[in-house]
Amino acid sequence: MLLLAPLLWRMTQVESHAPKAAKKKPPSAAQEIQFVLTFTTSPKRVGIVYLGQAVWSKDAPESQEEFSLKLPWPREGGELKFKVEWTDEAPLSVMRVELTDPADNKIERSLWGRGSVERVLNFP
Amino acid sequence: MKVIRLFLILLTAPILAASGAEKIRVSTFSSILTEVAQQVGGDRVEVFGHVKPGSDPHDFEPKPGDLRAVANAQLVLLSAKHMEGYVDKLEEATGTKGRIIHVGDQFSSLKLSVQQGGKSQDGEDPHWWHSIRNIARATKIVRDELIKLSPSDKTVFTANAGGYLARLEKLDAWVKSKVAELPRDKRKLVTNHDAFGYFAREYGFTVIPIAGLSKNDQPGSKKTAELIQTIKAVGVSAVFSEDVANPKLIQEIAHETGAKFGGALLSDGLGSGDGGTIEGMFKHNVGTIVDALK
C-alpha cells in the first residue's frame, strides 16, 4: 500500500489540475408556438426558417393561415426568417404575423414587400 | 504639320484639364472611415488612411509623415468618441486649414464605466463601427462634407453614397439572417476587450469582456477568477480573441473554463485579407461568432 502512495498522489494532482468544463446550457425544450399569418395578397409560397432550419412552408396559402409548431423557444424569445414569394404582378403587399409564445404572449409583426422577400422578424 | 499639332493640342487641352482636376485631399484616422471616404468620394478624392488595417487605433501616435498629410488635407475624418487622444496636438502641430470632422461624436454613444487611475468613471464606448446603422450614419456625414467642399460634384457623391448605403443595408440583412441561426440564450460574447457593445445592442448579445475598453487594461488575478466563475455559471460555450491582441489570456480562460477557443475577431477596425473591407469584417466576425457558439 505504501508503495502505491506516490502513484495515488500523482493521480490526484493530475485530477485537481484538469479544467472543469463550463456548465453547458441544455438546449431549450421544444414548445408549442401558435401562428396566424394574414396576407393582403396571397403569395405563391411562404416559408419559415428557425435557427437555420426550414420549419414550415406552404404553396399558395389562403389569405389567412393558422397553425402551430413545436420549436425550442428560450425565455429570451427568438428570430424567425420569413420567405414570401408574391407574383411579379402583385402590388406592394403585406403579411401580418401573429405569434403566441409558450407564455401566451401575443406578438404581432408585419412584413411588407413586392416579388420575392426574405426578412428576419424578432419576437419579441 | 505645325498647324495640325496646334489643332490637336487645342482639341485635347480641355479633356486633359478635366481629368487632371485636383482631387479632394482627405485624411482619415480610422480604417473604417478610409473605406467610407473612398466609396463616397470615388475618383474625386485622394484618401490618406493614417491608421492602417490590422493596427490598433488605441495605440496609434501620428508620425511626421502623418502631420504633413494632415497639414495639406482639405478634410480630416476622426473616429472620435475619445479614440484619438492626440487630436488637439494634431491641430496645433499641423495648423491645418482642413475641416476636422469628429464623425463618431455626431451619433449617440453607449455609456459605460471606465477605469482610470484606479477609479471608475462614466465613459463612452468608441467602437461605434460594430453597428452597421452607425456606418450608414457616417456615410451620410462624409457625403455631406464632401458636397460642402465640392458642390459641383454633388450628383457623383450622392450617387456613390446611395449605392454604398444599399450595400450596407444588404449586409445588415445578411448579419440578421446569420445571427438568427443562434438561439438567443446562447448569445454570450466573451472577448479580450470591451469592443462589441454596439454589435451586442443591435443583434441581441450579452458581452462579457476580459479587459476594459482598451486592450492595455488587463484584469488582475481577482478579476480573472471572478470572470472564470461568471463564464462557468452562464455556460458560455466559446470565447474569442482579437486580431490585434495577445490571445494568451483568453486561451488560458478557455482552458480554465472548458469553453472552446472560438477564434480571433476583428475588433478595432478592418483587418487583412478577407477582413480588409467593412463587409469582410462583418462576415468574418459574425461567421466566427455564430459558428463557434452554435
Overview of the structural elements:
The complex is a heterodimer of chains A (124) and B (294). Chain A has 1 helix and 8 strands, in the order αββββββββ. Chain A has 124 residues and is mainly β. Chain A has one domain: Lipoxygenase-1 (Sandwich). A 4-stranded antiparallel β-sheet of chain A has the order 4-1-6-7, with no helix packed on it. Chain A has a 4-stranded antiparallel β-sheet with strand order 3-2-5-8, with no helix packed on it. In chain A, strand 6 and strand 7 form a beta hairpin. Chain A is elongated. Mean pLDDT of chain A is 86; it is low at 1-21. By secondary structure, chain B is an alpha/beta fold. Chain B has 2 domains: 2-173, 3-Layer(aba) Sandwich (Rossmann fold); 182-293, Nitrogenase molybdenum iron protein domain (Rossmann fold, 3-Layer(aba) Sandwich), CATH 3.40.50.1980. Helices cover 47% and strands 17% of the residues of chain B. Chain B has 10 helices and 10 strands. A 4-stranded parallel β-sheet of chain B has the order 2-1-3-4, with helices on both faces. A two-stranded antiparallel sheet of chain B has the order 5-6. The longest helix of chain B has 26 residues, at 154-179. Chains A and B meet through strand 5 and strand 8 of A and helix 6, helix 8 and helix 9 of B.
